[in-house]
Write a structure and sequence with these properties.
The complex is a heterodimer of chains A (about 280) and B (about 250). Chain A is mostly helical. In chain A, about 75% of the residues lie in helices and about 0% in strands. Chain A has 11 helices and 2 strands. Helix content of chain B is about 35%, strand content about 25%. In chain B, strand 7, helix 7 and strand 8 form a beta-alpha-beta unit. The complex binds adenosine-5'-triphosphate and magnesium ion. Adenosine-5'-triphosphate (ATP) binds next to helix 1 of chain B.
């Protein structure tokens, strides 16, 4: 029996629609579930007090601060390295064995499970460099982990800048450096920023690699060398050890809200730039 | 008549495939010189030799000599940046940066380290006036250049090149992406500009070459077949191949 093209198209459309709706519903269900369970806990006190008696009481202030610090270290370290590598690969080398090796390594690194990064960070930063379980070890480990993402998104962003911008810039007497900073970078910026923001998202959400490198101390870190517990880790420990489901959900709700705003920000940056270049 | 650019015995290879053969030609000051010839004959390639844009292409090898005002441009000591400020370029597709009209025109100056607002204001206005665009954009210099029409964008690109006060302006099919009215405007502009600049233009339209150029060079498969005043070349070509091409008897 022959199926008419219009019929196949209808069937295909139906399947795609159903799957899309399922995905959206699933996301909606998870998010609503967490928000309903968690939002009642999200009081001002919960956000501004440090945890007490292993998290059974008090708030989550120290974990919020820890998350911020670990993420900050990761971004400050990974962004220049990642963006620099991407520019090196695209603008300063011709396609060669070396660039292929770098690119392949970056791609492989992106596929490694986070726990492996955690192990690496533990062996290298915590033990070998004697940084101990600390904000610094955690941040550096996260930096290594998000580096491939930043390299790849930046590289794609740079490659999608029309070649003509470079040509024009050179034809106007622009040097290589000026061409990159004034003709290429502004157009590549939204893509690069998206990569960095995705990196922030991963830092905020990571547990395994952070437990192994920053530790799980519930106390407020006083320096980058102190151990720390990020929100995701806090949630994990609270839920796993059944300390307080209520507070675990509160933390999760805040995490979900933060991730939502991070993604919103990424979208806004991209749209702003797209609108500007129209 | 004084020549600005003197090309002698120029050979060019892309990956060891020869694209230009023994080109000899003089480009006269304050003249419009047109390059014509079938697709792939090397017009753009030669044009891009004149401001060393081919340097950006990997595996492009050049032999021979090109002199600008008597100085070899492929000399080891030649500063490419300063060469490109003296030989400007306008591309086939209008290609303003996604920046404001003002910043587009000021781009080259800023690359030279000129950031003085008074100087920039002055140059931007002067360049836009010369490119016959000032009246249309003077009230919206801060607007994104991509919002201009195609023809306006191309005149902006000309203004951007003019802002550097080059001696020579190279144009590679500058009107091929434009409608007839915008094309006419650019052609008129080229006529005005030749009082101050030497212009080399690649065109696929023989009518355009006949209308706007003083000299025409006809290329075929990487060779310069014939170069003469436009009038002579179109009325009384020396070479049979030129005649075939301009009368349209060519595949
Ligand atoms: N970057 C490059 N690498 C290799 N070969 C090239 C390159 N650019 C041009 N060529 C070759 O050189 C020859 C001349 O090309 P060129 O672009 O100069 O032709 P053209 O006369 O400008 O053609 P058109 O009228 O279609 O623009 C062609 O055979 C082309 O394939
Ligand atoms: Mg061409």
């Amino acid at each position: 029996m022959q199926i008419r093209p219009t019929t196949t198209e209808k069937i295909a459309k139906f399947i795609i629609w159903t799957i899309s709706i399922l995905v959206v519903l699933l996301l909606f269900f998870i998010v609503t579930f967490i928000l309903i369970k968690g939002i009642p806990t999200l009081t001002w006190e919960f956000l501004t007090q440090n945890p007490a008696s292993s998290g059974r009481e008090g708030g989550i202030l120290s974990t919020i601060v820890s998350t911020l610090l670990v993420t900050m270290v990761a971004i400050i370290v990974a962004t220049p390295f990642g963006v620099g590598t991407a520019f090196y690969l695209t603008e300063f080398t011709h396609e060669s064995k070396a660039t292929r090796i770098i690119r392949f390594s970056a791609e492989s690194l992106a596929a490694i499970p986070s726990i492996v990064y955690g192990l690496f960070g533990f062996i290298f930063f915590v033990i070998f460099l004697k940084l101990g379980w600390s904000v610094l070890s955690g941040g550096l480990t996260m930096a290594v982990m998000i580096l491939p993402t930043i390299i790849r998104t930046s590289e794609e962003a740079i490659l999608s800048v029309p070649a003509q911008y470079r040509e024009v810039s050179f034809s106007l007497g622009g040097s290589k450096w000026q061409t990159i900073t004034t003709a290429v970078l502004p157009s590549a910026f939204p893509g690069i920023a998206t990569g960095v923001i995705l990196g922030i998202g991963r830092c905020v959400a990571e547990t395994a690699a952070v437990i192994l490198t920053a530790g799980s101390s519930i106390h407020m870190p006083n320096s980058f060398f102190d151990p720390a517990r990020t929100m995701a880790v806090h949630f994990y420990i609270m839920a796993r050890e059944g300390i307080s489901m209520e507070r675990a959900y509160g933390t999760a709700a805040l995490l979900v809200i933060i991730i939502f705003f991070i993604n919103l920000m990424a979208n806004m940056i991209v749209n702003r730039f797209v609108a500007k270049s129209r | 008549m004084e020549s600005v650019l003197k090309i002698s015995n120029l050979n060019l290879f892309y990956n060891n495939v020869q694209a230009l053969y023994n080109i000899d030609m003089d480009i006269k000051m304050n003249h419009v010189t047109a390059f014509i010839g079938p697709s792939g004959c090397g017009k753009s390639t030669l044009l891009r030799c004149l401001n060393r844009m081919n340097d950006l292409i990997e595996n492009c090898r050049i032999e021979g000599s090109i002199q600008l005002d008597g100085a070899e441009i492929y000399d080891k000591n030649q500063d490419v940046v300063s060469l490109r400020t003296r030989v400007g370029m306008v591309f086939q597709k209008p290609n303003p940066f996604p920046k404001t009209i003002y910043e587009n025109v000021a781009y080259g100056l800023r690359c030279q380290g000129i950031n003085d607002k008074k100087i920039l204001d002055e140059v931007v206005e002067k360049s836009l006036r010369k490119a016959a665009l000032w009246e249309e954009v003077k009230d919206r210099l801060g607007q994104n250049a991509l919002r201009l029409s195609g023809g306006q964008q191309q005149r902006l690109c000309i203004a951007r090149a003019i802002a550097m006060e080059p001696e020579v302006i190279l144009m590679d099919e500058p009107t091929s992406a434009l409608d007839p009215i915008a094309t006419a405007k650019i052609e008129e502009l080229i006529q005005d500009l030749k009082a101050e600049y030497t212009i080399v233009i690649v065109t696929h339209s023989m009518q355009q070459a006949a209308r706007i150029s003083d000299e025409t060079a006809f290329f075929l498969m990487g060779e310069l077949i014939e170069m003469n005043t436009t009038k002579k070349l179109f009325q009384l070509p020396n070479d049979k191949r030129t005649e075939d091409y301009i009368t349209g008897r060519f595949g």
